[in-house]
UniProtKB/TrEMBL annotation:
Keyword Hydrolase: yes
Domain annotation Carboxylesterase type B: ranges: 3-487
Organism: Alicyclobacillus macrosporangiidus
Recorded family membership: Belongs to the type-B carboxylesterase/lipase family.
Record's protein name: Carboxylic ester hydrolase
Ranges of biased composition (kind: Low complexity): 492-505
Cited Pfam families: COesterase
InterPro entries for the chain: AB_hydrolase_fold, CarbesteraseB, Carboxylesterase_B_AS, Carboxylesterase_B_CS, Type-B_Carboxylest/Lipase
PROSITE patterns per record: CARBOXYLESTERASE_B_1, CARBOXYLESTERASE_B_2
Residue ranges of the region described as Disordered: 481-505
Listed EC numbers: 3.1.1.-
The UniProt record lists the keyword Hydrolase: yes
Length: 505
């Protein structure tokens, strides 16, 4: 087994464990610090000798998500502006093996590719080279400066997306040395990671760098801003930061931690930072780009968890104790266009002992399901092979309030139920492992063949491709099964009473 591998920029030394080769903290770009802050990523400098690749690189600077930490007990990772590193798990033979590149979620402001839930050991044991990446987050990765700071910052939009493209380019140029096939790359992510995947489908500079895509609980509508909206957010953010528009010297002199503090002081939309349709890196809204067929030749898996929104209210007793009128007001603050007819539909058709329990599925549909369905429809209309799923495993944690909430499927996909903190999220029932085996096998099959079903068709149930007539999905759970058009009644209720949630300029 060879732990020393030659990349385009120098030699790296990894290690072996559990029959898998590991490399951690490999730089895929120069540190984006000093005068490179708010500038596009540049290829890393070459180095002499053998670089140690046994320690994860730092995560991007980010706020502490105390609510999530209270549930899973996730340790805070080292952070730095110098964060553009990737990690590789590979089989011990030379391959070539298909490659999967994971983009972590975290609302474009948090997360890291080194979180233990994303450990790629199981993928590598099953013949896939797994790569996880870091990218610039929050203001450092998504602040829109071009209209306010002049020509020197004309290429500063979508830096987090540009970082992802740089990582994909590094994979394209170097992964063969690690046993990977650069012509067989599956890009996958969850939440903002899935939004990033959808954005990369519409990003010309990413074209040809991946051949398959998986969107878990995210779509091309997630957090995408127009230049006007992004500029308005930037102006409010700069005021909180205490920097005048156009004062580049002051912007570059701000300590990195202040960018996180300034963001927390703002009262902004749920996703103030995210991709911007800047006309250069992202020429067109990802949803409109899908209409142009940008993903026509890229097979796609996409799906949601059954109870996405539960994660965000599971610890909020006010949500579950509030009366109907209070929740109507709260929902209208989230979506001013929301009519009584839709709210009444959920109150009448959803089970639950409180109004909050009945109305959580409303937000799940509006924020996650409806954009997923629109994305799937656009893809199949262009001839893209699509498979849709729903994750139904209901966690017993927090008295069952989590259910099949946002991010619940991640340790199942990675087959990492044994990792620290997972049982605090999923519970510890042995019923979990068969579901993890199914999901992990489907994702691995997809990376190898572009189809999540086994090549010989012996896996049951067979996962049918999505189409506009049957609208079938595979529901992963203790009784994994196929459902035809399960969102039909909700779709009808919404279309009769409310405009679409996805606003595409």
């Amino acid at each position: 087994m060879n732990h020393v591998v030659e990349t385009k920029y120098g030699l790296v030394r990894g290690f072996s464990a559990r029959g898998v080769r590991h490399w951690r903290g490999i730089p895929f770009a120069k540190p984006p610090v000093g005068t490179r802050r708010f500038q596009p990523p540049e290829p890393p400098d070459a180095w002499d000798g053998v670089r140690d690749a046994t320690v994860f690189g730092p995560a991007s600077l980010q706020p502490e998500d105390q609510a999530i930490a209270n549930i899973v007990g996730r340790a805070k990772l080292p952070e730095s502006e110098d964060c553009l590193y990737l990690n590789i798990w590979a089989p011990e033979d030379d391959g070539p093996h298909p490659v999967m590149v994971w983009i972590h979620g975290g609302a474009y402001v948090a997360g890291s590719g080194s979180v233990n839930w994303y450990d790629g050991t199981s993928f590598a044991q099953n013949g896939v080279v797994l790569v996880t990446i870091n990218y610039r987050l929050g203001a450092l990765g998504f602040l829109y400066l071009g209209d306010l700071f002049g020509p020197a910052f004309a290429s500063s939009a979508n830096l987090g997306i540009q970082d992802q493209v740089a990582a994909l380019r590094w994979v394209n140029e170097n992964i063969a040395a690690f046993g990977g096939d650069p012509g067989q790359v599956t890009l996958f992510g969850e939440s903002a990671g899935a939004g990033s995947v959808a954005t990369l489908l519409a990003t010309p500079s990413a074209r040809g760098l991946f051949q398959r895509a998986i969107l878990q609980s995210g779509s091309g509508a997630l957090g995408v801003h127009t230049p006007d909206t992004a500029s308005a957010i930037t102006e409010r953010y700069l005021a909180a930061l205490g920097v005048q528009a156009g004062d580049a010297d002051a912007l570059l002199a701000v300590p990195g931690e202040k960018f996180v503090e300034a963001a927390s002081a703002l009262r902004e939309p749920a996703l103030p930072f995210g991709p911007v349709v800047d006309g250069r890196i992202l020429p067109k809204h990802p949803m409109l780009a899908l209409d142009d067929g940008v993903a026509r030749d890229i097979p796609v898996i996409l799906g949601v968890t059954r109870d996405e929104y539960n994660l965000f209210v599971a610890q909020d007793d006010r949500w579950f104790q509030a009366d109907e009128d209070t929740l109507r007001q709260q929902l209208r603050r989230m979506d001013p266009r929301l009519p009584d007819g839709v709210i009444n539909y959920y109150l009448a058709h959803r089970q639950g002992d409180t109004a909050g329990a009945k109305l959580s599925p409303l937000v799940t549909y509006r924020v996650f399901v409806e954009p997923m369905l629109l994305t799937a429809d656009k893809l199949v209309q262009q001839g893209t092979p699509v498979w849709m799923y729903r994750f139904d495993w209901a966690s017993p944690v927090l008295g069952g309030r989590l259910g099949a909430c946002h991010a619940m499927e991640i340790p199942f996909v990675f087959n990492n139920l044994h990792q620290t903190g997972v049982d605090r999220f999923t519970g510890d029932s042995p019923d979990r492992q068969p579901i993890a085996d199914q999901m992990h096998r489907a994702w691995t099959n997809f990376a190898k063949t572009g189809n999540p079903n086994t090549a010989d068709g012996t896996e049951e149930p067979v996962w049918p491709a999505y189409d506009l007539k049957r609208r079938a999905l595979l529901a992963f759970g203790t009784d994994t099964h196929v459902e035809d058009d399960p969102y039909g009644p909700e779709r009808a209720a919404w279309s009769a009473a409310a405009p679409p949630s996805v606003s595409i300029p």
